[in-house]
DNA sequence: TCGAGATGGTTGCTTTGGTAACTGTCGATT
DNA sequence: AATCGACAGTTACCAAAGCAACCATCTCGA
């Protein structure tokens, strides 16, 4: 009879680790700005690409359109982003960060990178192989 | 100015991958038995250890006690597990799988292992390094 | 032995996420 | 120009998850 040890089972381990990392990561932007993960993703995506539609944000950050819609509204209420109706296509809207949004972003990024660097440093020589394996798995489990 | 590419950012990648893997994994037990992830974890833990308390299940499977409580009730209603009041300590209850529960478990396990094996096989020589890196990160991000 | 704090487990409240239905707009075909 | 299907985004509804309050029981110390 085949046996399965939950603590060694890959999907479980990934899930556990991902939650733990996310939770720790919240401490990075938590103290100053209280962001949810979807809000952080929208912020990061907009900062990365400048101006884009909600649809494009969702695609790049693997988020369902309702999640994006809500995160966008939250950031808008915080005055971190503005909507502008697109001229060519009035169904969509061009989203971009305000000065405050960009300011907050720039404050968070170095800490986010330091957080990531801390993990990779702790992995030492295992870091590079991990990243390669991650890339392979991402290929096997593509976005939707 | 430091730049951050979300798609290369480790916490994001872990999160994305973990969701994708979990979602695919549901297809393993989905067709026959419609289980939630917490239910699956309780089932697996009980099968692994025989008889234990809800507290112990939560600890082993990294789940909040309310999650465990609800998953236990769901499995109980499905007649996959039974509660027995502990004699030494009447606050806690001894949980164990019924024959049906064990039967379902035994049907799922080979497929679960095959699913995992498929991933590891696709990783080829990268599998072992990945598992080592995972272990290191788990150490760095312990349960709660 | 009795009272205070700790503990196992459940329940209620609130937040969060997903699905589906809806609104408004576009593009294409007629 | 009118209509039909596709599409961007929002909203309403429902399932899932966390937090805190709660109940019952245990343990320990005065």
Commentary on this structure:
Two copies of one chain form a homodimer. Chain A is mainly alpha-helical. Chain A has one domain: Orthogonal Bundle (Arc Repressor Mutant, subunit A), CATH 1.10.10. Chain A has six helices and three strands. Chain A has helices at residues 10-29, 37-49, 54-61, 65-77, 99-123, 127-140, and strands at residues 51-52, 81-85, 93-97. In chain A, strands 1-3-2 form a three-stranded antiparallel β-sheet. In chain A, helix 2 (37-49) packs across helix 4 and helix 3 crosses helix 4. The longest helix of chain A is centred in the last third of the chain and has 25 residues, at 99-123. Chain A is globular, with a radius of gyration of 18 Å. The model of chain A has no long low-confidence stretch (mean pLDDT 94). At the A-B interface, helix 1, helix 2, helix 5 and helix 6 of A face helix 1, helix 2, helix 5 and helix 6 of B. Chain A binds a DNA duplex (30 and 30 nucleotides) through residues 36, 38, 53-55, 64-70, 72-73, 89-93.
What is this entry, summarized?
The structure is a homodimer of 144-residue chains. Chain A is mainly alpha-helical. Helix content of chain A is 65%, strand content 8%.
Structural category of chain A is: mainly alpha
- Give average pLDDT of chain A, whole number: 94
Biggest sheet character of chain A: 3 strands, antiparallel
The number of strands of chain A is 3
Helix content of chain A: 55-70%
- Largest interface, Cβ cutoff 8 Å: A-B, 57 and 57 residues
- Per CATH, the class of chain A reads Mainly Alpha
- Count of spatially separate domains of chain A: 1
Alpha carbon gyration radius of chain A: 18 Å
Shape of chain A: globular
- CATH fold node name of chain A: Arc Repressor Mutant, subunit A
Low-confidence stretches of chain A: none
CATH superfamily of chain A: Winged helix-like DNA-binding domain superfamily/Winged helix DNA-binding domain
* Elements of chain A, N to C (H/E): HHEHHEEHH
What is the CA–CA distance across the termini of chain A?
A: 34 Å
Strand content of chain A: 5-15%
């Amino acid at each position: 009879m085949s046996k399965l040890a939950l603590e060694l089972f890959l999907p479980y381990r990934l899930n556990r680790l991902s939650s733990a990392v996310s939770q720790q990561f919240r401490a990075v932007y938590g103290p100053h700005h209280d962001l949810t993960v979807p809000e952080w993703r929208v912020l990061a995506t907009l900062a990365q690409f400048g101006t884009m539609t909600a649809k494009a944000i969702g695609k790049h950050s693997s988020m369902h359109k309702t999640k994006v819609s809500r995160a966008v509204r939250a950031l808008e209420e915080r005055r971190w982003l503005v909507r502008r109706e697109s001229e060519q296509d009035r169904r969509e809207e061009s989203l971009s960060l305000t000065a405050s949004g960009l300011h907050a972003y720039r404050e968070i990024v170095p800490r986010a990178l330091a957080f990531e660097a801390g993990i990779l440093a702790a992995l030492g020589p295992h870091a590079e192989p991990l990243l390669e394996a991650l890339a392979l798995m991402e290929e096997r489990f593509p976005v939707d």
